[in-house]
Amino acid sequence: MPFQKNNQFGAKKILQENLDEQPICFKGRKGQKEAIKAVPNWQEQLRTFVDDLIAQQKIVMSSFEQLFSSNRVRSILAPH
Question: Is the separation of the CB atoms in 10 and 3 below 8 Å?
């Protein structure tokens, strides 16, 4: 018997933000797939980690661009 839509006992959405329709997929090391399932709230923790990783990369790239756009670095790297 299929589960009826709008059933009062249906699953409730607990996420604050909408999820992308396409999943992020990667191959983990052996044993990670089974072990991560034992971590409470692992999916939300992983989403937060990915957000932090992206933010860190943006900071690094911004710093790198600022460093190499300065005139001092250009004068050091310029051929004499």
Answer: yes
